[in-house]
Fold these 2 entries.
Entry 1:
Amino acid sequence: MNRSGVHLTTIIACLLTVAAVVASPAQPGQGAWTFISFDVPGSTGTFPLDINADGDIVGRYGSGGRTHGFVRTADGDFTTIDYPGALFTVAGGINSEGVVAGWYAMVAVPGPLTERHGFVLRDGVFTPVDPPGSVFTNPLGINPEGDVAGRFCIALPCGRSGSGNYFGFLWRDGEVVIIAAPNARETNAWKISPDADIVGGYRETGGPNRLFLLQADQFTLFDLPGALPIAQENGGINARGDIVGTYCDAAPCELTSPGTHGLLLRHGELTTIDFPGATATNANGINASGDITGNYRDAAGANHGYLLTRKD
């Protein structure tokens, strides 16, 4: 037990499998798929990050030179989330009980030298969530049990240069488990399912970016057809094991670059998600019904949220 009262363990799994993924000709937006675009009223950009079983969506938006978290109910009503005293708040995940996990910074435009810290918001009360020694915590997912998954680093700057200071984490009942994928120089845990399966992305030393699924201390690795590069920032998983994320036509894979697409992995089959007319599409969250949320960039360079609903 360390000074913070948080027990710390580490998972670096030696058991792993590599899953085969095949491309699907199906495209969301056709047949049983329906896109709905939305924006937080008055925002300069809307970025949804997760969706729960009831269809409530959380994320972030810009307004008045600040970044705010938001909750969008299934009825389309918006509520703003601001951590007390912070100028930058992000709502990263929401569970079926309406409990929100996210992070904040005390400056309006945080950079790689800015500390960021995590929280859980339950019934209007903020509870800190930070792995020991973390100076940069991004909680991205929370399941019905209140288990939180995300990424953190222990030394500034926390940039995307492959410096090796990003790790995934699981926060459960006052204990922190560090998640480091095999041979990884950077590990990002995104979301956690009701069964505590964790999905994420990692950068492999001397190799490609990959998706991973962590189940009972065993990693399953996913390579997309044609070794398409994966974005590392965010993605999701639902109760039946469907996975969403983002990939690019070519490296480097940046979330708003042209040629960026959302992805759905279901039963080993890859489906591409492109909002109609968008220059870039990201898929960040999926619920038990298979509804997907994320953001897209239009031809004018503005970012909007979307909800993609489906019928099987």
Note: The chain is about 0% helix and 50% strand.
Entry 2:
Amino acid sequence: MARAVIDGVALEYDDFGAGEPLVFVHGAFIADAFRPLLAEPALASKFRLITYHRRGYGGSSRTSESMTFAIAASDCCALLSLLGVRRAHVVGHSHGANVALQLALDAPQLVQTLTLLEAGLIVGASAPLYRETLLQSGRRYAAAGARVAVDEFFQLRWPSYREDLPRVLPGALERAVADAGTFFEAELPGALDWKFEAEEAQRIRQPVLVVLGEQSVNLHPRFAETYRLLLEWLPDAEGFVLPAPTHFLQIENPQALAVALSNFCARHPTGET
């Protein structure tokens, strides 16, 4: 990966392909979670694909300070400016989708469309249970260590990950364990304090594709509720239920997701190439 240094912060990134810019913001733990999706012909043959390791992940700068979604969005904005991107399609997964939403709020001129892959919002009737789940993960990290906490975190969101993740992304689990402190120590406090509800959603005027993994509804009530609320709140949103996967849907079913994403972006072109 290339390396950009912006205001003293180093971010690893890849920038390849030709066409309208399509930017990917990963969630917690698996910094390379978009790799299977990026290899799909429906995207690789049509777009300029930009993916990066957020601060604290992979070879990007480590962080000891609290990492709010606003800081993470600012990093993304600065990287795109450095790369000469004036307007882009933005895709975010889980907590990366929260970063993408914050980017749309803070720099709306930069965002042509948003695609939200199971955003990690603490909203609705499921909010107390989801908040407690996150807090429990943090307690397990403090008491039992990174490997146990990451394993339990993944089990709740992708029950077959022990078999599937090493096959699809070799080495990703070890990298996730190494990066666990970024989420539990730096990101989680800010995530628990972040507010995104109907009022904030009404400010996002771009077209938004809200994606739900078909099997996620069996894992936690917050997945279906967040999907429903985003479709209700966002002024210009459409929903898509991706067949088969759970929460790590871009790893579990990249082919179908790539086709849906490509079609969505084609309907809302940036005019930038």
Note: The mean pLDDT is 96.
